[in-house]
Specification:
Elements lengths: L1 H6 L25 H4 L3 H8 L5 E2 L8 H5 L3 H11 L2 E3 L2 H8 L2 H10 L8 H11 L1 H7 L5 E4 L1 H30 L3 H13 L17 H12 L13 H14 L20 H22 L5 E5 L7 H6 L3 E3 L20 E5 L1
Helix pairs in contact: 3-10, 6-8, 7-8, 8-9, 10-11, 10-13, 12-13, 12-14, 13-14
Length: 344
């Protein structure tokens, strides 16, 4: 939704004030999620320390408004409440350095560089704890205590289950033709998130007619760039494209059964992506036609633009003269990545 929302007048909705942050620093044995009354933002913030995290208190961050206090204050109260503790050396190294840097430290000490990042860090600490302490001198890091870990993992489990239920429900509504209901399900889920998806998207307003028509265009798209798609598989591709669009996903994999073959000239996921692009482009053109804009142009994908698409990008078009995009003569193995924009 975000591209159209930015292009067509949508304004961000001010975030509602969160509930008051949890109070008190009771002993860990006395704590329970119900008694703490922690907000989703606080639990989300706490979950960032599950495996240990470097913490810098300087400057204002996006957490300030969500937590209704500086993050440093939340950290101090989490420590006092028994949710966080100073992180061990391994966690500091994990938060400070990339895996490539950790492997370079191993090479400098003529140690094996194989294995996961945590295994490499364990090897470093065992071989040169003093040297690694020097690498993270002055760094502050925290990790969840068992009590904090339990709270954070419960929160994340609830979040995953809410996501699963919302996606399953939106898929059912999409398959039965209730497009507005499917979109409303996604919007309701996003409204409940600490970090809502999209820039300038007002999830509180609910789907309007343009949102429904955009989704309808995707579910009807049969772009000519796709060759050899069996008739009984178009619907699968269209529904998967609709789910990608509603949920802002890059991959169609969660909604493609093993039996889906796709186009003969492109792989399974690219097949769905072309359906998505075709529907979104058609919806954009319909919106532009209702505005004062009369001409459009096609932008390629840089060095990845094939010769046929480069020809397409050389001129401006009246909306009713524009060839179908994605372009049927595109020869890119990744499918046509051209986009249509208004020409002024």
């Amino acid at each position: 939704m975000s591209f159209f929302d930015i292009l067509f007048r949508r304004k961000p909705r001010p975030a509602p004030p969160p509930p008051p942050p949890f109070s008190g620093a009771a002993a860990p044995a006395q704590l329970s999620p119900s008694r703490l009354a922690m907000t989703p933002a606080q639990l989300k913030f706490l979950s960032g320390f599950l495996n240990g995290s470097v913490f810098t208190a300087a400057g204002k961050s996006y957490w300030d408004d969500l937590l209704r206090e500086p993050p440093a204050s939340s950290v101090q109260r989490f420590v006092a409440a028994g949710f966080l503790a100073p992180a061990p050396l391994a966690a500091k190294l994990d938060g400070k350095f990339k895996a490539t840097e950790i492997k370079e430290f191993l090479r400098e000490r003529r140690l094996p560089v194989s294995g996961r990042k945590d295994q490499c860090i364990e090897r470093l600490v065992a071989a040169d704890a003093a040297g690694m302490e020097a690498k993270v001198a002055g760094i502050t890091a925290y990790v969840c205590t068992p009590t904090g870990k339990e709270l954070a993992e419960q929160f994340l489990a609830v979040e995953r289950e809410r996501s699963r239920i919302a996606r399953e429900r939106s898929l059912q509504l999409l398959q039965t033709g209730d497009l507005r209901g499917a979109l409303a399900t996604v919007a309701q889920f996003e409204r409940q998130q600490v970090f809502q998806r999209g820039v300038g998207v007002d999830w509180g307003r609910g789907p309007d007619n343009e949102d429904v028509e955009r989704l309808r265009a995707i579910l009807a798209a049969r772009p000519r760039i796709l060759r050899g798609v069996p008739d009984d598989q178009w619907r699968t591709a269209q529904v998967a494209a609709g789910m990608m669009h509603m949920w802002g996903e890059r991959s169609a994999r969660p909604w493609l059964p093993d039996s889906f073959v796709g186009a003969s000239n492109l792989d399974r996921e690219t097949t769905v992506l072309m359906v998505l692009f075709a529907g979104q482009t058609k919806a954009l053109l319909a919106q532009l036609q209702r505005s004062t804009i009369t001409k459009v142009q096609v932008l390629g994908s840089g060095d990845g633009t094939c010769p046929a698409c480069r020809q397409l990008c050389r001129r401006k078009y009246r909306i009713d003269e524009l060839p179908e995009v994605p372009y049927e003569h595109c020869t890119n193995d990744l499918g046509c990545r051209c986009v249509v924009v208004a020409a002024f």
